[in-house]
Design a protein that fits this description.
The protein is an alpha/beta fold. The protein has a domain of about 160 residues: P-loop containing nucleotide triphosphate hydrolases (Rossmann fold), CATH 3.40.50.300. The protein contains 9 helices and 9 strands. Strands 5-6-7-3-8-9 form a 6-stranded mixed beta sheet, with helices on both faces. It is globular.
Length: about 240
């Protein structure tokens, strides 16, 4: 009997931009139902890695599968099981929250109901508000709702709380925790230590395009002989991690 494929399976991934090796022999496996963190400084290769996983960039080498599917060769199938919220959302600023959700819901044969998406991210009161009038936290929560419109089994969330105030950040975290309760696998790209400690089951530390450690947050702290995850990152990478603004 064949075992179920991993939610995300990456082997020996590489990507070069000119003379710079942005992703250097990255391998990782994300199991179904995990919240898996990808942690590193700006320029560590985090976003490039997840864009390749999502099929948005072509790798120079290596193997990527999402629930056993090739994100480049089987793009249509992958779109039905993978939701993606990237750091820069390019949404029509004049459309309302409800209009944007209705637009995305229309892309899928069995979408999550629009009202359910609004409730999930706490934006029902803003359903008639234009995107340009939303706060930064509300825009981020809307981006999550759009990524979940097709009932994905895997969601990639990239720097989803950067720039948010503490109250807005905690609301977004609660949304991510609800995804885990719904058995959605989450790949969470971040450089916020508190976010990793609260949400992630396991985390890969990236530095200069390579994975330098992969463990639970507590395991990383123990491996580094550190008092907390901030100290563990410095010990393992030799670098200070920027705080989210």
């Amino acid at each position: 009997m064949e075992s179920e494929p991993a939610a995300v399976d990456v082997r020996n991934l590489s990507k070069r931009y000119g003379g710079m090796l942005a992703v250097d022999d990255v391998s990782l496996r994300v199991e179904t139902g995990e919240i898996f963190g990808v942690l590193g400084t700006n320029g560590a290769g985090k976003t490039t890695t997840v864009e390749i996983i999502a099929g948005l960039r072509r790798p120079d080498g290596g193997h990527v599968r999402v629930l056993g599917l090739d994100p480049r060769r089987e793009r249509a199938k992958v779109r039905q099981v993978l939701g993606v919220q990237l750091q820069q959302a390019h949404l029509h600023h004049a459309l309302t929250v409800a209009e944007l959700i209705d637009l995305y819901v229309g892309f899928y044969p069995n979408p999550r109901p629009a009202g359910e998406l609004l409730d999930l991210v706490g934006l029902t009161p803003q359903r008639t508000t234009r995107f340009e009038k939303l706060s930064g936290g509300q825009q981020q929560r809307l981006s999550i709702a759009l990524a979940l419109a097709g009932r994905p089994r895997v969601a990639i969330l990239d720097e989803l709380t950067t720039g948010l105030d503490p109250r807005a950040r905690r609301k977004v975290w609660a949304t991510v925790e609800q995804l885990r309760d719904d058995n959605v696998t989450v790949v969470l790209v971040t450089h916020a230590m508190e976010e990793v400690e609260r949400l992630c089951d396991r985390v890969a530390l990236l530095d200069a395009g390579r994975i330098i450690a992969l463990d639970t947050p507590a395991g990383l702290v123990a491996r580094a002989g550190a008092a907390n995850l901030d100290e563990a990152f410095v010990a393992l990478s030799g670098k200070e991690l920027e705080e989210s603004a």
